[in-house]
Amino acid sequence: MWPLPPCGQRLALLASQPQMRSDPRMSRPSPSTRADYRWFHAITTRWMDNDAFGHVNNVVYYSWIDTAVNRFLLDRGLLDLAASPVVGIVAETGCRYIAQITYPDDVAVGIRVTKLGRSSVRYAAGIFRAAADVASAEGHFVHVYVDRASMRPVEIPDFIRAALERIAVPG
Amino acid sequence: MWPLPPCGQRLALLASQPQMRSDPRMSRPSPSTRADYRWFHAITTRWMDNDAFGHVNNVVYYSWIDTAVNRFLLDRGLLDLAASPVVGIVAETGCRYIAQITYPDDVAVGIRVTKLGRSSVRYAAGIFRAAADVASAEGHFVHVYVDRASMRPVEIPDFIRAALERIAVPG
Amino acid sequence: MWPLPPCGQRLALLASQPQMRSDPRMSRPSPSTRADYRWFHAITTRWMDNDAFGHVNNVVYYSWIDTAVNRFLLDRGLLDLAASPVVGIVAETGCRYIAQITYPDDVAVGIRVTKLGRSSVRYAAGIFRAAADVASAEGHFVHVYVDRASMRPVEIPDFIRAALERIAVPG
Amino acid sequence: MWPLPPCGQRLALLASQPQMRSDPRMSRPSPSTRADYRWFHAITTRWMDNDAFGHVNNVVYYSWIDTAVNRFLLDRGLLDLAASPVVGIVAETGCRYIAQITYPDDVAVGIRVTKLGRSSVRYAAGIFRAAADVASAEGHFVHVYVDRASMRPVEIPDFIRAALERIAVPG
To answer: Which of B36, B50, B102, B115 could crosslink B32 through cysteines, CB 3.0-4.6 Å?
Structure first.
């Protein structure tokens, strides 16, 4: 409906050309696909997720991963925000960005457990645009379980460990 | 699954008791219902939307209203983030908070146009928890249309005005 | 250092021309100045505060107001995040946007109390760019004091009321 | 000023006990100190940075690192948000969380360049609470320089490379 000015063309390239989405940062391992994850959570993007470059800011991806892991725990009854005496606190996270995501894209976050220790668990996360099978970003997320009162690490409770094992894919 | 300690009880009250949700801030006009709005957008909440009081922070509601209005404009072809030579910039917003929302609640934002001027448009927005018919919060949002190059106000283009009129409910 | 392409020129206008900053949304009351406020809090902006239009997103202003009010309460010993049995919860907020703010601008938020009821307090807030005496945005913020356990409104405790009166400027 | 209830005690532990701040996640390399970084940027925290656990959410740390790197580039004249024809886009980030940070803490982010390739640069970042010499969190941040129009990787321009070398500490 709007005519496309020179500026728009360039920004449109940024936002939607397939080669742009996948080209610049790809001399790395092939991205994972949905089949690599065991549990998915759909997330709607927000206008303010886009930054001054017109795509979702790198920081926002972490809020999606954080949301997916916690939603998994809530949906499985493994976390009660108010009452759990033992909770996971975040010890380490990371993300590599493969292809742009832009509001109003909808996304899905897939997770799996890649390492299950005595008191810590490491998740891998893949972020997918609505119709895509190949990840637009890949992250990891490490929780250490602590006693909420003393904040000291504790063994992961058995019922939580059992649920985590069900979405575990080592490696 | 977890035993409920005294602290948990109190926070649980904060999060879920119906009387808590509606009581404290209600000596005001009755909240609107879904029937009062003309277009809806579903939004998923995020772990970090909750603040230190364990409910969605007041600021986050505005990101939902902002997202709903822009999504309406995008879905109707009224805004092209890259190419539109005329865009709406935000002149005024407001929100009254009626009842708490807490991640992982899902929400819907309903909007309608309440005032359509020469270069500005005012929206009313209602924020609803998934299954609720009564709004948990009500806001307004004013866009002034400007020429993107000069940033001076311009008349709302006819095709935008026509679309806004279709969701207008004066008053 | 960079040559200025056509697209850049337009965005630069958006970001820095004085007439743009003050023109489009100003057929309204004159903005307040620093003299209108009683307590100030300096805030640093963040890269992701800028949205796709290259200026600070309208939502972010509320996080600054929220931060200033709570910081006032914390600095005065009126709020203990962990222990206060009575806390203010947000009942209503609003903001009108007068002139653009763009990361990396630094800002100051000025506040004053404009209304002090039995259980509620209304603040006015002015948002100023670093060197500016005239507000770039003006907001209001209403707290209702509640018992943290029952979430029912309570009278504002005397020591809080006394501190609020010291920054009150009715009207 | 407030009496300390059982709930408050537990949350207070979470927020302020030294052993809590450093204990649970520390069986790892010693944290870096300010001397390990070459450029610093002070950042004010915000009320909504705290999440439901009453400390700054893990996601927010990335917004601070992002802000510090971009501020360095802006202050050195290496980035013009509107006009730069070549910009850095984020290819990878990561963070390990060593000790809690809680609003209203103020923080400083220190950065140095740890790797400078043909088209990419890797920064290390340390996040410090106001008076602390030991990092509360450590991150990394990788920019790939691209032509803004084509979004294809390009060689880092010489004047940018020269400035990055001045804050480089390999390893």
So the answer is: B36
